[in-house]
Structures are given as structure tokens and as C-alpha cells.
């Protein structure tokens, strides 16, 4: 399995050949370097995301010892306290309770109410890019938009917003395969600082509630069943991290794909009605989250191979989104693709709560760039971030002629 190497720059530049090799080898393959079972086919990934024999955690049923796992180092406790109380890392009944309560505050109406703000901000960011004659699409448009939007939702004062992106980036470093001690140290430090900041913000909103998500989370309840303060903190961080990383990377990955496919870019510029299907296709074509991990809570059998309880499966979203059994000519970017059951937002009970907001942001920024910067072009080939799980670019230098 030499082609599948998550630390190889050549693999990170284009993992699709390695994914094709994995799919040809079988439906589940053990990968020794991470001690994970790789699942590369769309049908299996989709089914296992919904299979209750797998879980994001095992602590609701087993101790570390019972599950054959070692507890995290005590020094990592601030990260795990923050991470493990978010609904993405929980299973029913805790997941069900928290998602229900969060949904009371994070409603479709709440998201839709943000649309004028999102569209106005996207237009302002692109205007600045055009005035400057170009710049870095990552730092000038892709990052500021979702950071500002989620901060606006949460009620984070504008002066504090520069703190959010560095905290998010440091925490998300722990989601990579085999993170280094330095990565863990940064994640722990960010977890401590972010938690302290949110405790103060929550205390302020308890005293003076506002029309924001933090106030909504404080108020949300069912029959006196409320979120704990730690659950509120973890939820806010989860919304920030998921919103930032997915939307930022989907934006720059998507525009880089467009620049490499000039015929499709020309078609999009000529017909802006393609934007909705273009957003879905770009999410499929260069998936921002390449891998989603699950613990095996009860033995499962995949194509005759028993994956035992205590094992970890790696559901390869990037491979599933390029599976020729589901997508016609998956290696071809087709912005008009209608039948597009990509799984970039996951599936099952952990389907992304923020998917409508992400789609709104991606649509707004694409629309603004197509209208205001119709001559936008790539200046230099970008460098890939040395990450596999969360796939993105170091930057994307563009010029407006």
C-alpha cells in the first residue's frame, strides 16, 4: 500500500490514485502506521456513518481498559474536556439531548436571518480584493467571511474576533493522524485560552442576554433539561471549528480546482445559475474533510472481514466522493452535475448541523467573486498544507486584471 501515505507531499497533492488503488484492493484494509481499518467505498462509508455499532466515542459503554485503549495523557486533559463534551464526539443519549437543545438555538430561521449580513460581508471583502488588484484569496476572503459570520452568530465582540482563527487552527491540529507533541501542546494551550474566554462571554450573557447564539444556548431547555456550561463552551468551539475549517478550505480548494479547469470556470462565469450545483460539485471534487474516524463498539463484518470491537475505522470521505460506482467520471469536474450524493457533510446522526450555513457562505463568496472579479486568475501555484484529514492550501495568490 505504498501509494497511500498521508505524510507524503505527493500523496497530499493528489490522493485520488491511491484511493483508486485502495478501492481495487477491497472494501476494508488494515493500515498498520495508524492501526486503522480504511474504508474507501462510497456505499460502505455511507452505511457505516449510520451504523450504531460504531461510535465517535466508546466511553458511554466502556472504560479505556475494557475497550483495550490507553487513556490520554493527563497533560492533554484541557483539550479532551473541551473536545469530548461537543456533540460531534458524543453518542446517544447525550448526543441526542445536546443536539436537540442546540437545534432550538441554531434554527433554520437563525441561519436565514444571517443571509443579508453574509452577502454584504462577502461583497465588501471582494470589493477590497478588487481595489487592491488581487491578493491572497485565503486570507482576504475565505478566512474572514466564516470567522465573522460565526462570531456574529455567537455574539463575539468585533475586537475579539482575531483571537478565534488561531485558536481554531491549533485545536484542529489534533484531528490529524498521529499528531506531534508540539501539535498537542498548541491544542492544549488554545483549549485553555478559548475555554476561559467563553466562560467570561457566557457569564456576561447570563447577566445581559442578547440576540445571539450564546444567549440562545443559555435559554434553550426541555422540561428543565439544559446545557451545562461545559456543553455550551464545547458547542460554541465545535461550531467555530467546523464552520471555519470546512468553509475556508472548501473555498480555496474550490477556486484552485476552477483555475485548473478553465473550461468549467468559463461556463460558470457565463452562467451564474450554475452556482448551486457548482458548490456541491466542488465540495465533492476536493473534499475539505478527507477522513472521519469511528470506534467499533461491536464486531462488524465487511465483505467477509471481521473488524473487531475496539478497533478504529477510518471512513475515507475523499475516496467515497470519487467512487466510480456512484459518480460518473468522478475525476472530471462537472459543475452541472445533478446527481451528486457526496458525503462531505457526513451522514446519520452526526450530519453537519451547519451545512445550510456553509452552503450560504460558499454561495455568497462565489457569487461576489464572479460578479465583482470576473477576470480573477491564479498568480502562482499554491502550496498544500501538510495535513491529510483537514485538506487545504497555505494560500491562494490571485490577481484581478
Instruction: Output the CATH homologous superfamily of the domain at 67-286 and 343-400.
Output: Cytochrome P450
What is the ordering of alpha helices and beta strands? HHEEHEHHHHEHHHHHEEHHHEEEEHHEE
Largest sheet: 5 strands, mixed
| CATH architecture label of the domain at 67-286 and 343-400 | Orthogonal Bundle
Tally of helical runs = 17
Give the overall shape: globular
Mean pLDDT: 94
CATH topology of the domain at 67-286 and 343-400: Cytochrome p450
Q: State the share of residues found in helices, binned by percent.
A: 40-55%
**First and last CA, distance:** 45 Å
Overall radius of gyration: 21 Å
How much of the sequence lies in strands comes to: 5-15%
What low-confidence regions span 5 or more consecutive residues with pLDDT below 50?
A: none
Look at the structure and give the CATH class of the domain at 67-286 and 343-400.
Answer: Mainly Alpha
Classification by helices and strands: alpha+beta
Topology of this structure?
Blueprint: H1 9-13, H2 16-25, E1 29-31, E2 36-39, H3 42-49, E3 54-55, H4 77-84, H5 94-105, H6 108-113, H7 115-131, E4 134-136, H8 137-142, H9 144-154, H10 164-172, H11 181-207, H12 213-219, E5 221-222, E6 225-226, H13 229-260, H14 262-270, H15 275-285, E7 291-296, E8 300-302, E9 305-307, E10 312-316, H16 317-320, H17 355-372, E11 376-378, E12 397-400
Amino acid at each position: 500500500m505504498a501509494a497511500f501515505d498521508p505524510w507524503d507531499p505527493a500523496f497530499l497533492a493528489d490522493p485520488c490514485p491511491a484511493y483508486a488503488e485502495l478501492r481495487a484492493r477491497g472494501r476494508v484494509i488494515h493500515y498498520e502506521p495508524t492501526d486503522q481499518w480504511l474504508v474507501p467505498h462510497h456505499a460502505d462509508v455511507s452505511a457505516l456513518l449510520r451504523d450504531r455499532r460504531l461510535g465517535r466515542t466508546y466511553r458511554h459503554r466502556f472504560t479505556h481498559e475494557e475497550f483495550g485503549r490507553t487513556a490520554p495523557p493527563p497533560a492533554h486533559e484541557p483539550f479532551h474536556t473541551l473536545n469530548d463534551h461537543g456533540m460531534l464526539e458524543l453518542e446517544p443519549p447525550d448526543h441526542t439531548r445536546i443536539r436537540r437543545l442546540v437545534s432550538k438555538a441554531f434554527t433554520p430561521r437563525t441561519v436565514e436571518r444571517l443571509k443579508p449580513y453574509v452577502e454584504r460581508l462577502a461583497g465588501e471583502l471582494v470589493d477590497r480584493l478588487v481595489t487592491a488588484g488581487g491578493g491572497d484569496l485565503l486570507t482576504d476572503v475565505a478566512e474572514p467571511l466564516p470567522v465573522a459570520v460565526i462570531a456574529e452568530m455567537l455574539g463575539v465582540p468585533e475586537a475579539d474576533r482575531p483571537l478565534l482563527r488561531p485558536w481554531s487552527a491549533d485545536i484542529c491540529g489534533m484531528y490529524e493522524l498521529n499528531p506531534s507533541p508540539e501539535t498537542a501542546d498548541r491544542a492544549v494551550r488554545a483549549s485553555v485560552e478559548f475555554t476561559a474566554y467563553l466562560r467570561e462571554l457566557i457569564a456576561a450573557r447570563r447577566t445581559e442576554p442578547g440576540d445571539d447564539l450564546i444567549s440562545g444556548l443559555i435559554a434553550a431547555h426541555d422540561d428543565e433539561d439544559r446545557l451545562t456550561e461545559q456543553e455550551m463552551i464545547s458547542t460554541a468551539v465545535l461550531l467555530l471549528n467546523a464552520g471555519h475549517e470546512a468553509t475556508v478550505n472548501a473555498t480555496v480548494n474550490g477556486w484552485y480546482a476552477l483555475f485548473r479547469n478553465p473550461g468549467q470556470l468559463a461556463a460558470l462565469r457565463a452562467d451564474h445559475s450554475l452556482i448551486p450545483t457548482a458548490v456541491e460539485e466542488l465540495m465533492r471534487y476536493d473534499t475539505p474533510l478527507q477522513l472521519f474516524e469511528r470506534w467499533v463498539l461491536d464486531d462488524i463484518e465487511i465483505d467477509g472481514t471481521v473488524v473487531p470491537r475496539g478497533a478504529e475505522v477510518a471512513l475515507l470521505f475523499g475516496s467515497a466522493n470519487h467512487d466510480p460506482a456512484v459518480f460518473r467520471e468522478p475525476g472530471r469536474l462537472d459543475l452541472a452535475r445533478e446527481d451528486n450524493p457526496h458525503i462531505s457533510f457526513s451522514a446519520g446522526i452526526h450530519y453537519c448541523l451547519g451545512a445550510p450555513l456553509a452552503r450560504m457562505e460558499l454561495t455568497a463568496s462565489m457569487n461576489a467573486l464572479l460578479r465583482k472579479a470576473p477576470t480573477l486568475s491564479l498568480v502562482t501555484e499554491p502550496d498544500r498544507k501538510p495535513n491529510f484529514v483537514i485538506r487545504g492550501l497555505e494560500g491562494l495568490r490571485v490577481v484581478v486584471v
